[in-house]
């Protein structure tokens, strides 16, 4: 996705300087550089506001491509160019610095370098004779804060970049003559704090940003992981520079989802932003549950039956609700029978117990019936209503919950849920963003909400506890 207004590019000068230094680029690198350094009629970078966003798999050569470009920009700059190159992890930052040091030791480049690179931890730096500098550091160590007059910022491992870290660093480019910000990374794992990377991808793909360059190298979403033609599509350096054995090594040592992300560049979901707005979810956080409502429970299990979640919903007279993950247990250790006894012990004070008809938790139906606990079986159409009701309550500020730190399994599900269509009427159900995500805690509280809103049962007294 190109930014608007490109009329020229600074790439030919960079490419020519690189050739003088003994560096040649492949076609894909040539095209990427031409787009990255595209300029508008005023001579400023076309991506100078939204930045350059590159989603790319491993073993392609992104550090070589971007690193050599940055060095050439420093050499060619008519004023001292200040570059910050950050990675999330210290190890990645150190490896990048090591590569860059070996690069600038080449005789054709070394004559532009001012002395030896500075190697002190937290102060890694390469200086050039024209006053340009490249500074390296890890965000996990706080690197990047407090700088000013920065011209170029490179965010490596951008899939692990939160808004707070970005807020600390972006103002450093405010006074730059022609700033350029580069985000590069692999598709994020569901557990990565990837809101910056994901949001920029979303904005580019859905036409919500015309001042950003977005480049994605990836195989088809439904690609066979063994298909070599898909390897070539995802990795333009294969097989000429990246060997088959290198990719096979990744294939062998990474899980299925991880290989699709890191080896094939495939994002876990079509819509990369969680369907539940994190700010709205955060707004519903309370430290204590309010008494006085009527409680319902919902049960769910992930498809692999590795855990059993019991969600709780306390519905209040004003139409608001409080939800909690009441129980979440490893079924390999605890089995599932305990859940029937757990529910039975609370049934006299409970309005409804609900289970999605498609859930593996339906295995508990006979056990609950044997204990004279009726179960609301939520049909596919009702599941669509339930998910819609959950979103409506969240958006209206009518759904409360405990802090995410107190319920990490529910928090993770909320942060990594997307939707799937149900029927053709526009209804939807929850869908996980990857095979390594368990959304059963969210499904459990959702069917608990559905039960609370549809049951006619009214227990003898209002509830004070949900556990």
UniProtKB/TrEMBL annotation:
Domain of life: Bacteria
InterPro entries with a match to the protein in the record: P-loop_NTPase
Region (Disordered): 220-243
Basic and acidic residues compositional bias, start-end: 220-230
Listed name of the protein: Phage terminase
Organism: Bifidobacterium callitrichos DSM 23973
